[in-house]
Amino acid sequence: MSSNAVVAAILYEISEILTVKNDRFRSRAYQLAAQRITSLTEDVKVLREKEQLDEIPGVGKSIASTIVEILDTGQSKILEELKESLPKGVQDLMEIEGIGPRIAMRLVEELGITNIDQLEQAAKDGKIRVLKGFGEKKEANILQSIKEFRSRQTRFLLGSVLPVVDEMISWMKESDAVKKIEVAGSFRRRKDTVGDLDLLVASDASDIASERFVSMPPIERVISHGQTRSTVYLKGHLQVDCRVIKSEEYGAALQYFTGSKEHNVKLRTIAVKQGYKLNEYGLYKRENDELVASESEEQIYNALGMQWIPPELRENRGEIEAALTGTLPHIIEYEEIKGDLHVHTKWSDGTATIVEMAEAAKKLGLKYIAICDHSKSLGIAHGLNEERLFEQGKEIDKINENLEDFKILKGIECDIKSDGSLDFSSTILKELDFVVASIHSGFKSEADVMTERMIKAIHNEYVSTIGHPTGRIIQKRNPYSLDLGKVFEAAASQDVAMEINAFPDRLDLDDVSSQKAKEYGVKLSIGSDAHASNQIDFLKLGIAVARRGWLTAEDILNTKI
DNA sequence: GCCGTTTTCGGCCCGACTGTTTTCAGTCG
C-alpha cells in the first residue's frame, strides 16, 4: 500500500470508532481528512518533508501530528486508545443492516453479545425482543440481515452492474407513470466499484411508479417500500434504492442523490453562506423559503454562482472551487475517443478474429484499433513469437486493403522481463505501429526493483505505452509496489504514455493516478484490453476513469486520428 | 477536530422509513 493509503486507512478507522461513540463532528473531521488524503496526487511523505501537511484541506495541527506518527511508526496512539475504549463487538455488530451504534452498544452492554454468531443465537432464542424499544419484528429483521450479511459481496464492479442498470431502466420505462429515469449515486459518478444503485424516477403517480419498482423481476427481498422511497435487494444481493419525485424537482433530486456525500456537504455549506438552503427538493432562500431552482442541475449550480459540474468530478477534490472561478477543465467526452489502443485476438488468448474485432470496433463508431496480442514470454496466453507476429502483420496488411474509413494498427502487448528488457528486439519492435509494454510476473518484487524494471522499459525507444501500469485487480490483487512519481517522470522525459486499461476489474491506472500522471506531463492511452469482440465496449469504462481524473482530449492519445 | 465573506468560538446537511411507540428514536443514505 502507498503511504497515502496507509494513512487514510488509519484515519478512516478513527473516524468510524468516533461515529460509534456518537462523536459526530470529530468523526467527520477525520473522515474528511482521510478522504482528502486518498485523493491527493502527491505523496504525504513528500508533504511531510516539506512541512506542508497542514496545508491539506481538512488537516490541522492535530491530524498533521497523527499523520507524522503514522508515517514514523505505522500506527496511531489515538486509534489504539479509541479501540481500547470501545466495548468489544460493537463494530462487528454494526456490520448488520439495521444495527447502528446505539443498538450495537445496547446489545453489548445489556445482553453481553460480542459477535454476529451470538447475535444470531440471541435473536433465535427471543432474547432481543424483551429489550425496551425492541419487538418481534426487529428480531426477525436482524435474523434476515445476518443471513444476507453472510452471503453479501461488499462492492460490485462498475462493468458488472451496467447490464443490470439497462435491464432495470427498460423495465421501469414500460410504465406510463415513469416520466424520467436515471441511476444517480456512485454509478453516475462512474466510480470503479459501486456499493448499491440509486434509481431516480420522475413521476406524477408516485404510488404506481413505486409499485412498478418493487415488482421488478430480479428482486430477492423488499427492505422498505414507501410512497417516495423504496429499497430492495436484487438477486446476488445488489441493493437498489428507488426515489420517486415530481418532474419539476428532478434536477434537485438528481444533484442530491448523485453525491458524493463530501461534494454535497461542501455545496450545502456554500449555499448556506450565500443565504440559501439546499435539499433534494430544491434550492431555497433561507429567509422566506422561496424556491430558487429545482428543475435542472444546471440551474442549481448556476444559482450558486458556479459552472455545472460533471458527475465524475463530484468528489470534493477541488471541483467546487474550480467551478466557482469558472476554471473547470473540459473533460474528455465519450465520442472524442477515435480508436482502441489495446485489443487481443485468437492469435493469442482472445476469442475473436482480427476481422471480427475490427467490425465490432467499427460498429461502435471507432476509426482504428491496435491489435496487441501477447508476446512469446506469455506462453500461457499463446504469446506470439517473431514468426507468428510477422504472419499476423501480413494478415493485417491484407485486411486493411479492403477496409474503408477504418485502420487496423499493428501492435503488441510486449512482456517486460524481470530485468526490464523487452520480449522482442528493437528490429522487430520498430516495424510495429503501437507497442504496449506490460509486466506480467514478479508482482511481489520490492518497490525499487519494480520501479527500475519499469523505467528501463520506458527507456526503450519503441515503447508507446505502459500497459496496466500498477497491475491491480480490483478486490483481488493490490497494485505492485511502485514509485509512480519516478515512473511518470521517466515517462514524461521519454514521451512514453501510460495506459488506462479499461477492463472492468483493472481500470488501471485509476482516476487519481491518471490525474497525477497528467501533472507530470505524461499522456495517457486508453485500451479496452478486449479478449472478445463485445468487450471493446469496455472502452467507456476507461473513458470514465479519464473523466474522473480531470483529463481532457489533449491528454489522451486515442483522441487523435 | 477543523474552519473562518457569521474568523479564534460556535457550528458542523437533512429528510424518509421502520418499528416501536402514542410522539419518537434510530438508522440510512
What does the model show?
The chain has 561 residues and is of the alpha/beta class. It has five domains: 3-85, DNA polymerase beta, N-terminal domain-like (DNA polymerase, domain 1); 90-150, 5' to 3' exonuclease, C-terminal subdomain (DNA polymerase, domain 1); 156-245, Beta Polymerase, domain 2 (2-Layer Sandwich), CATH 3.30.460; 253-324, DNA polymerase, thumb domain (Beta Polymerase, domain 3); 334-559, TIM Barrel, CATH 3.20.20. Helix content is 42%, strand content 14%. It contains 23 helices and 17 strands. The strands form four sheets. Strands 11-12-13-14-15-16-17 form a seven-stranded parallel sheet. The protein has a five-stranded mixed sheet with strand order 2-4-7-6-5, sandwiched between helices. The longest helix is centred in the N-terminal third of the chain and has 18 residues, at 3-20. The chain binds one DNA strand of 29 nucleotides through helix 2, helix 4, helix 7, helix 9 and strand 6.
